[in-house]
């Protein structure tokens, strides 16, 4: 029996690239599937080539495959609902911003790290991987677990892997997965459009 495909394509007010409209953040990962290493490498390469102020590249990534000690450390730092599902992902990626360099603040580091994560996400989706970014984790625990210096700040954790079978998920998870995709209208987002 084949797994039914979920069509989560965004209904947009203006045309956007298919890879953007079709990308969505699942919480249901195949807990048995291994990562497609070529697709993961391409996503990391896309992150590497994200725009960056003055070519400073103030981001790093912790890449942890399911079953590794690093993966277990990240799972143990997840908070709330994230802890109940994210461990099924084949890979967890922590995006880390270099917020200071040589004693000087890198004020654009958070933005640039977000760019790297976004490029990773789009490339991963284009290569058939599912992703979900999370802010609900203990940043201090991640920093301690991976011995990050004070110059580096964990920003987000991204679950990456193969989409799981929604039919095996709890009722609560199925409701979340099937909920309508919504975004604030452009008119409420753009402060000035002169």
What is the CATH C-level name?
Answer: Alpha Beta
Helix count equals 8
Arithmetic mean pLDDT = 94
Structural class: alpha+beta
Report on the structure:
This protein has helices at residues 18-21, 37-48, 69-77, 82-85, 109-126, 139-145, 171-178, 186-189; strands at residues 59-65, 91-98, 100-101, 104-105, 130-134, 152-161. With 194 residues, the chain is α+β, with helices and mostly antiparallel strands. It has one domain (33-179): NADH Oxidase. Helix 2 runs antiparallel to helix 5 (109-126) and helix 3 (69-77) packs antiparallel against helix 6. The termini are far apart. Belongs to the nitroreductase family.
Topology:
Layout: H1 18-21, H2 37-48, E1 59-65, H3 69-77, H4 82-85, E2 91-98, E3 100-101, E4 104-105, H5 109-126, E5 130-134, H6 139-145, E6 152-161, H7 171-178, H8 186-189
Antiparallel strand pairs: 1-2, 2-6, 3-4, 5-6
Domain Nitroreductase: 21-80
Family: Belongs to the nitroreductase family.
Keywords: Oxidoreductase
């Amino acid at each position: 029996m084949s797994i039914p495909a979920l069509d989560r394509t965004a209904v947009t007010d203006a045309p956007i690239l298919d890879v953007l409209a079709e990308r969505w953040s699942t919480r249901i990962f195949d807990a048995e599937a291994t990562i497609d290493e070529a697709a993961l490498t391409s996503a990391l390469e896309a992150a590497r080539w994200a725009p960056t102020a003055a070519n400073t590249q103030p981001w790093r990534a912790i890449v942890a495959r399911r079953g590794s000690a690093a993966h277990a450390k990240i799972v143990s730092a997840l908070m709330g609902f994230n802890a109940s599902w994210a461990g099924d992902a084949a890979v967890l990626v922590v995006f880390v911003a270099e917020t200071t360099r040589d004693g000087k603040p890198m004020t654009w580091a958070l933005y640039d790290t977000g760019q790297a994560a976004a490029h990773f996400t789009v490339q991963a989706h284009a290569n058939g991987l599912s992703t979900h970014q999370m802010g609900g984790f203990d940043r201090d625990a991640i920093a301690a677990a991976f011995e990050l210096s004070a110059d580096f700040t964990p920003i987000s954790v991204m679950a990456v892997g193969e989409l799981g079978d929604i039919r095996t998920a709890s009722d609560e998870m199925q409701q979340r997965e099937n909920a309508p995709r919504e975004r604030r209208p452009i008119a409420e987002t753009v402060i000035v459009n002169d």
